[in-house]
Amino acid sequence: MSRSAFSGRRRPVRLPRFVVLAALAAGLLGTLPGCSKDEDITTPTVTNPDRISVPQAALHPEGVQYDDANKRFIVSSRTKGVISTVKDDSTFAQLADDSRLISTIGVNLDAGRNRVLVAVSDNGVNPARTTAATLRKRAALAIFNNTSGALLNYVDLGGLPAAATYPNHFANDIAVDKDGNAYVTDSNAPIIYKVDPQGVASVFLTSPQFDAGTAFGLNGIVYHPDGYLIVAKANTGTLYKVPIATPASFTAVTNAAGLSLTGADGLLLTDPQTLLLVSGSQSTVYRLSSTDAWANVRSTGTFATGAVSPTTITKRGSDAYVLYPYTATSPRFKIVKVRF
Question: Secretion signal: which residues (predicted)?
Fold first, then answer.
């Protein structure tokens, strides 16, 4: 285009200062990455953290379950008797309590029925609630609503006529079958109790093989979907397979590798062929497997916890978390992801 195309020279147009500044700002913003108004700049959320440290002094939890629907752990307390919840950020809240809860031990979350089942005992570590009448005599099952924490049922186990012949009792761990029946181990008597969905209690199985004398006997228990229980005896490390339909035909699981499982406490069945076992006295979580319906068992891995008195274990998605209560006077407790 030649200069002859213009009829004359024009004066340059001066834009107001605020218009210029606005244009410059818009240009600069356009060069900054990730600054869309539709995007939020947030700190990434940690899912399934490696460990949760809970600053609750002298709570001494024994049992733990993960409540996936509410994204929280449920824990018991030997020293206070309460049932509480823990979030990933260590937020701690009380879920349930009752004056009869002297020491709460094992916990089972029956999520499908919205129930929390808790084994109740008294070994003298809760001075606010222990009495001469309950010390080493209390064995009960308390059942709470998982949403409200309301007490649904309280079932006396140690007072059953078939259990009264044994002087001492300690309700320890709980398994729930597909029909809602609960099975509770007694560590001070050679008994597995049964409580049906209506709250009717009975002695499901007793045997001299379960007797541990003055030591801790029956402890961890899990329900296998093929219709039997797997039960651990702490003082010997023996595992038992107990058919639901014919409990008297129970058998000892053969430990093919001759592995010592003494101190066996919490059990977790992660799939039909894999069982995680916590040995508190050995500060170890064992991964066990069976390819013959738990007639035989072998070890496929271990996780060393250190001297933290590990007790029980729970499943969270594809992960497992073990409880570190430390001691009855510790200023905190931890829930730690297991890594084999």
Answer: 1-25
Of 147, 159, 229, which is closest to residue 192 (Cα–Cα)? 229
Least confident of 69-78, 197-206, 252-261, 322-331: 252-261
| Ramachandran bin of 274, using left for φ above 0, alpha for ψ from -120 to 50, beta for the remaining angles | beta
Residue 32, token pair as written in the block: 């900054």
Indicate the CATH number of 59-337 among 3.40.50.2300, 2.120.10.30, 3.40.50.12780, 2.30.40.10.
2.120.10.30
pLDDT digit string, tens, across residues 49-81: 999 999 999 999 999 999 999 999 999 999 999
Rounded Cα distance, 280 and 265, in Å: 7
Torsions phi, psi for 142 (to 5 deg): -105, 140
Residues 245-255 have pLDDT tens digits of: 999 999 999 99
Q: Which of 183, 195, 232 is nearest to 212 (CA)?
A: 232
CA-nearest of 168, 171, 145, 156 to 78 is: 171
Looking from the CA of 240 toward its CB, the CA atoms found within 13 Å total 27
Q: Report how far residue 299's alpha carbon sits from residue 281's, in angstroms, rounded to the nearest whole number.
A: 18
Q: Measured between alpha carbons, how far is residue 194 from residues 160, 171, 181, 226 in Å?
A: 11, 12, 7, 18
Is there a contact between 97 and 51 (Cβ–Cβ < 8 Å)? no
Tell me the pTM.
Answer: 0.87
User: Could you give the CA distance from residue 332 to residue 248 in angstroms, rounded to a whole number?
Assistant: 42
The 3-state DSSP class for residue 29 equals helix
Q: What is the mean pLDDT of the chain?
A: 90
Element housing 27 (H / E): helix 17-31
The structural domains of the chain, with segments of one domain joined by +, span: 59-337
